[in-house]
Amino acid sequence: MKRWQAATIFFICTVLACIGVWLFEHNNEQREKQRAAAQRQLIYESTLHSYNATLANGTARGLVEDYLRKRGVEFNKICCLDQSKSDAEITKIGYELGPWYCDGYEVYIGFQFSGPLGSEDPNDALKKISIVSLPDNCL
């Protein structure tokens, strides 16, 4: 075998080995990201379950807000979760990376109430508690 043939074969084998190592590492990295995302989702579901166990549907808005304040949970008012025409309260529980056109998604627990849009009546009844993802800084 000529020297240039041996060098070419060595070069090709080295490139193929490097590609194989990169693919192996990349695959492990992807699996780790998926495992971490599944772990975060379990935490979100656990938080949702905790709120659902404590705050039953029909609980007055004032009691829900007092419950959150007593536990030091920050919350904000927001309009119209799930295409409904009623106000809601949200509290941030996490952040997920987004696609190239978004920085990511803020993950919240949303407390939806039965009162009309713009109502801040403390007697509005809790209608639904859910996990809500809202885009953050998208194009």
Radius of gyration from CA coordinates: 25 Å
Mean of all residue-level pLDDT scores: 84
* Strand line-up in the sheet with most strands: 1-2-3-4
Largest sheet: 4 strands, antiparallel
Low-confidence stretches: none
Strand pairing plus helix content: what structural class? alpha+beta
Figure out the total of helices.
Answer: 2
Percentage of helical residues?
40-55%
Count every beta strand, where a strand is a DSSP E run of 2 or more residues: 4
* Percentage of β-strand residues: 25-35%
Described by the principal axes of the CA atoms, the overall outline is: elongated
Alpha-carbon distance between the two ends:
58 Å
Number of domains: 1
SSE arrangement, N to C: HHEEEE
Protein architecture, described:
With 139 residues, the protein is α+β, with helices and mostly antiparallel strands. It has one domain. 45% of the residues lie in helices and 29% in strands. The protein has helices spanning 3-54, 61-70, and strands at 76-79, 87-97, 102-113, 126-138. A hairpin with a 7-residue loop joins β1 (76-79) and β2. The mean pLDDT is 84.
Give a short summary of the structure.
The protein has 139 residues and is an alpha+beta fold.
